[in-house]
Inverse folding.
């Protein structure tokens, strides 16, 4: 019985030795090198990035290029890149919001609605979300729905020039109805 207790204690010590606690945040981390550990090639881990050090997501390059394409008014290309980003990182709310905006610009409002739904679940009620949804409704000619969303965006970010500009755009749309 004594050897079983000793074996259990030894296993516990091995398990604890494999974890590290960061003094700054108190989080226990596993699979991260300790100071002085070496790689299988004999190199020190100092200066090498571990998974926790990575500062980008796989979708970042696609999102960056998609934003460039969107600014250049290449909405189809931008939409394809935002779609790629959503496939690389399904929880990237910015990618879903961008995909929705591109879908609006090519008048695929069915796709835009689905992407806005997904974006809301990921990023929540942000000024950007409400502003984009408002613009979507403006493009559809649903001016009351556009106004409701622009006002929600304005409440969250009253000094945002994009929101203020869209409210002016909505106002001019109401005054200048073309047939």
């Amino acid at each position: 019985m004594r050897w079983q207790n000793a074996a259990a204690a030894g296993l516990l010590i091995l398990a604890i030795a494999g974890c590290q606690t960061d003094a700054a945040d108190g989080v226990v981390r596993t699979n991260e090198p300790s100071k002085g550990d070496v790689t299988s090639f004999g190199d020190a881990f100092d200066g090498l990035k571990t998974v926790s050090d990575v500062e980008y997501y796989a979708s970042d390059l696609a999102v960056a290029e998609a934003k460039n394409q969107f600014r250049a008014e290449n909405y189809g290309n931008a939409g394809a890149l935002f779609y790629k980003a959503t496939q690389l990182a399904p929880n990237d709310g910015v990618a879903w919001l961008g995909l929705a905006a591109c879908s609006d610009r090519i008048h695929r409002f069915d796709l835009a609605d689905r992407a806005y739904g997904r974006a809301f679940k990921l990023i929540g009620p942000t000024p950007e979300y409400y502003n984009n949804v408002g613009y979507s409704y403006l493009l559809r000619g649903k001016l009351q729905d556009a106004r409701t969303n622009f006002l929600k965006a304005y409440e969250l970010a009253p000094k945002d020039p994009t929101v203020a500009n869209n409210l002016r755009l909505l106002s001019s749309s109401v005054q200048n109805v073309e047939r």
Q: What stands out?
A: The chain is about 65% helix and 5% strand. Residues 63 and 82 are 6 Å apart (CA to CA). The first strand starts at residue 19 and ends at 21.
